[in-house]
Amino acid sequence: MHLVVHADQRQFSLRDSGARLTGSGWTASAVESHRIGVEPGGIAIATARSDVVESSVDLLPSAPALSPDAEHVVEADLPVPSGRVVISGPADYPSQEKYFSVLPGLYRARVSYVPAGPPGVTWNEHEFGEHYRYVVELWPVEAPSDVEVLRQGAAVWDG
Known about the structure:
By secondary structure, this protein is mainly β. The chain has one helix spanning 28-34; strands spanning 2-7, 11-16, 36-39, 42-46, 51-59, 72-80, 84-88, 98-101, 105-115, 132-140, 148-151.
């Protein structure tokens, strides 16, 4: 599923429909290395711009190969007990949220930061920062795992 998301405050999230994110996942490691903030009910994804960004979310049967074009790749668990994943920016109203249905359970989420041009829809043309496509790949897993950075991007990456 291809998405254009309003990443206000330089982030957007994926969460179970029954969960709310509080910002508690933004630890020092999350900010400096992971680029994702992981909480019990979801994942906040840091973006290089506070702007409209392109993303995609795909459900797969198992872990995919790493994208050769991705500058940064990180994985974390995403519990989805409701079977409904919500994708939204922090300033989105409920009517602006996007939904993705899955079987209830535990998923591994791989987030790949792939360099891209500006999206076809603009919101904040004066915002600084690189353009990326934020590729999220989900697959079911049996047991929980820790956050893992599979490819570490540059230390300075968000403008």
